[in-house]
Amino acid sequence: MLMIMISIYSLYVLVNLYVSVMQVGYISQAKKKAPILMECDEYVKAANYAIAKERLSIATTLIDFMAVLVWIGFGIAYLSDNLLIQNEALKSVVVVLGFVLINSVISLPFSIYEKFVLDQKFGFNKSTVGQFIKDTAVTLVLSIVFGSLVIWGIYFIMTTFSFWWLWSFAFIFGVIILINMFFPTIRAMFFDKLTPLEDEKLAEDIKTLMDRTGFVSSGVFISDASKRDARLNAYFGGLGKTKRVVLFDTLLQKLEPKELLAVLGHELGHFAHGDIYKNIALVGVILFAMFALFGNLPETLYLEMGLSQAPYIVMILFLIFMPVLGFIMMPIMGIVSRHNEYEADKMGAQLGGASGEIELANALKKLVTENKSFPLSHPVYIFFHYTHPPVIERLKALGVDIATEDKTALEGTCPNID
Fold first, then answer.
1. For 107-111, which contacts have Cβ atoms below 8 Å and span 24 or more sequence positions?
2. Phi then psi for 387, rounded to 5 degrees?
3. Helix-, strand-, coil-residue percentages of the chain, each rounded to 5
4. What phi, psi does 235 have (nearest 5°)?
5. From CA 349, how far away is CA 352, in angstroms rounded?
6. What is the pLDDT along the chain (418 residues), one digit of tens a residue?
7. N or C: at which end does the chain have fewer Cβ atoms within 10 angstroms?
8. Domain spans of the chain?
9. What is the DSSP secondary structure assignment for residue 125, as one 8-state letter?
């Protein structure tokens, strides 16, 4: 059984690496051709950024795979045997947190490289070393506090109920719903400074949009996201009475009011179609499958690993193999998500009035350029990774003729700039 589990994880890694290598090769060739949606230099920069990010992903995948082999081979047993804690509940919390924190330390150099080398090179990073250390420390403390509560909750369920995996699924699913409800509040408390939108005209236009879709918000806020990153973004956070609209200050700086309203109209389309609840339901399906699987693993697996079937061992194996099922389910989630994005685009265009399609299309073009999102991807990469349709397909659905709308960017072939 152990060899089957390792083989499944190895296959997951190989497929993941294959998809990434295909993407790197595809973009490496595409960047030499006529640019799309961007001027030539921006097009090549976006390509180089996408390639660099994918190469980093390849490196992290390989390191993660080696870490998994170490954990399964002797790491879990070593961690368990050397934490001499008599209280089983406390030991479960400490062992699982130790596993999570060690993996975080392993991934930390990649996070530092991505932010202070890769993102710095391409003009995204605005964070200081001090800000990064503060964010990391706050994240660590929150992870320890809330993670301990969740681990203890799972331990209690596993040692109390016969069908512990079913009750554990219900518990974790409830935690996910709570996170969705209170994420904007927690983020505002510890990471971002939120201020009410001062532009009264824009605030009134946003309220009109929300009224048309029945979206009731606790307010429209501006996040000082530019202190960390130059990317453009916005989100509708929370559930029920906790819902709020949060706009990154970078978005306000780069988009015209009508373009911003078109983007928000798109997000309101998700709300009107109940997409957030559909996404939560899909996550629930994945979680249910994971808990059903790991709640019924044969005892021989633990014997082959030289481990007991202790609650913390089950939790660690769950965390190790969760990305595998997520990767398997991702194409299904991607198909559903991409369909939802098209429908949200339609509503965003409708809410924008006569010029709604044009404003949304213009906003999408700016988002692509400002976020250095290379507009082309290998089909297999789209199949496994894309939750949004390729921007070119979204523009076509909005009635934009790429060949005629982007004459200046399509005049010639980009030089091979590294």
1. 107/60, 107/63, 107/64, 108/136, 110/56, 110/59, 110/60, 110/63
2. -95, -20
3. 75, 5, 20
4. -150, 150
5. 5
6. 778 888 999 999 999 999 999 999 999 999 988 888 888 889 999 999 999 999 999 999 999 999 999 999 889 988 888 888 889 999 999 999 999 999 999 999 999 999 999 999 988 888 889 988 998 999 899 899 999 999 999 999 999 998 999 999 999 999 988 887 777 677 767 777 878 877 888 888 888 888 887 877 777 788 887 888 888 877 776 666 667 778 888 888 888 888 888 888 888 888 888 888 888 888 898 889 889 988 888 888 888 878 888 899 999 999 999 889 888 888 988 999 999 999 999 888 888 776 778 888 888 888 888 888 999 999 999 999 998 999 999 988 888 776 544 444 444 456 555 5
7. C
8. 2-410
9. B
Residue with tokens 């389309």, as numbered in its chain: 269
Which two tokens mark 277? 């609840």
Q: Which residues contact 308 (CB under 8 A, 6 or more apart)?
A: 302
Tokens encoding 312:
């913390």
SS3 128: coil
DSSP state of 274: T
- Cβ-in-10-Å burial (0-12, 13-18, 19+) of 93 comes to buried
| Strand ranges inside 146-275, DSSP E | 194-196, 220-223, 234-237, 244-248
CA distances from 28 to 31, 117, 383, 411, 418 (A): 6, 21, 19, 20, 10
Locate 17 and state its tokens: 């690496």
Residue 377, both tokens: 């991807």
Which of 175, 181, 184, 177 minimizes the C-alpha distance to 281? Answer: 177
Residues near 164 by Cβ (< 8 Å), separated by ≥ 6?
157, 158, 295
